[in-house]
């Protein structure tokens, strides 16, 4: 039995005050839901306010990225122990926006995954194909390379400590969601790739879907056997819509 994960990625939105307000509104709407993990990933500057605002609740926080080193002369970067010190339990690694705009590769993803696990952070590792790759019919090989290289060097025992987020790039922020069946197909394929790395571990590893997840499609997505939750962008900025997603409630 895999515990569902509903994670909100605020990207470069919400100031500390706006983030705090969002969490204060969210808390009563998701209170008592202990059978799922509820995660918010604010900007670095909103992490401290979010950390205070979630205290005593069933909501956790995570970083959107981090540097793999524990410290060093890396202007503008944030180290894993700094995320930990702010109360983060999770960290998103290799989001397609990081890969597209900031030159992240499967090799840097692998380095960061290792650093996150060493620090006791749960990495949410993002993979997914472009529209061009989907149209060429190469989704599976593209995703397989990202999974294998991004998780390179992990032992079979470490695998269940990682969360994979399948996010087709063409579905991010476009309002165009992969159909639940298409998303299920790729998530099942990812699980088969994981099974090659760790037989039992693959059954325990959570695989999320991301890309225009909304209250009106979450239920259908969660009905699929290999989709264990969602990584939500736009719809996680408002407490009401994120709460509906967390509760698997259609509008
Ligand atoms: O990290 C979240 C994804 O990029 C999905 O974003 P979206 O829900 O706005 O499409």
UniProtKB/TrEMBL annotation:
The molecular function terms in GO held by this entry are: triose-phosphate isomerase activity
**Pathway(s):** Carbohydrate biosynthesis; gluconeogenesis; Carbohydrate degradation; glycolysis; D-glyceraldehyde 3-phosphate from glycerone phosphate: step 1/1
Q: What is its main location?
A: cytoplasm
**PROSITE patterns in the record:** TIM_1, TIM_2
Q: Which reaction does it catalyse?
A: D-glyceraldehyde 3-phosphate = dihydroxyacetone phosphate
GO BP term (any one): glycerol catabolic process
Q: Where does substrate bind?
A: 9-11, 173, 212, 233-234
Compartment(s) of residence? Cytoplasm
Broadest EC class? isomerase
Q: Which GO terms describe its cellular component?
A: cytosol
What's one Pfam family here?
A: TIM
Keywords, comma-separated and alphabetical: Cytoplasm, Gluconeogenesis, Glycolysis, Isomerase
The active site annotation covers 95 (electrophile), 167 (proton acceptor)
**InterPro entries per the record?**
Aldolase_TIM, TIM_sf, TrioseP_Isoase_bac/euk, Triosephosphate_isomerase, Triosephosphate_isomerase_AS
Q: Which CDD domains match?
A: TIM (cd00311)
Provide the E.C. number(s) assigned to this enzyme. Answer: 5.3.1.1
- What highest taxon heads this organism's lineage? Bacteria
Which NCBIfam families does this chain map to? tim (TIGR00419)
Subunit composition?
A: Homodimer.
Q: What does this protein do?
A: Involved in the gluconeogenesis. Catalyzes stereospecifically the conversion of dihydroxyacetone phosphate (DHAP) to D-glyceraldehyde-3-phosphate (G3P).
Family according to the record: Belongs to the triosephosphate isomerase family.
Q: What's the protein called, per UniProt?
A: Triosephosphate isomerase
Q: Which organism is it from?
A: Heliomicrobium undosum
User: Taxonomically, what lineage is the organism?
Assistant: Bacteria, Bacillati, Bacillota, Clostridia, Eubacteriales
């Amino acid at each position: 039995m895999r515990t569902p994960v509903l994670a909100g990625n605020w990207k470069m939105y919400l100031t500390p005050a706006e983030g705090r307000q969002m969490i204060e509104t969210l808390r009563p709407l998701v209170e008592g839901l202990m059978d799922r993990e509820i995660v918010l990933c604010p900007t670095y500057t909103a992490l401290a306010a979010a950390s205070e605002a979630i205290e005593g609740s069933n909501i956790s926080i995570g970083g959107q990225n981090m540097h793999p080193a524990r410290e060093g002369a890396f202007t503008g970067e944030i180290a894993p122990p700094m995320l930990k010190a702010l109360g983060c339990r999770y960290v998103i690694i290799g989001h397609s926006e990081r890969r597209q705009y900031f030159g992240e590769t499967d090799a840097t993803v692998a380095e960061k995954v290792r650093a996150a696990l060493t620090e006791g952070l749960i990495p949410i590792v993002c993979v997914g194909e472009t529209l061009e790759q989907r149209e060429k019919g190469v989704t599976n090989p593209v995703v397989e390379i990202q999974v294998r290289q991004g998780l390179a060097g992990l032992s079979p025992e470490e695998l269940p400590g990682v969360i994979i987020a399948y996010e087709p790039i063409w579905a991010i922020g476009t309002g165009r969601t992969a159909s639940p069946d298409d998303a299920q197909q790729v998530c099942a394929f990812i699980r088969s790739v994981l099974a090659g790395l760790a037989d039992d571990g693959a059954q325990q590893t959570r695989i999320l879907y991301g890309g225009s997840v909304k209250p009106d499609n979450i239920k259908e997505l969660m009905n699929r056997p290999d989709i264990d939750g969602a990584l939500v962008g736009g719809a996680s900025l408002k407490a009401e819509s994120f709460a509906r997603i967390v509760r698997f409630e259609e509008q």
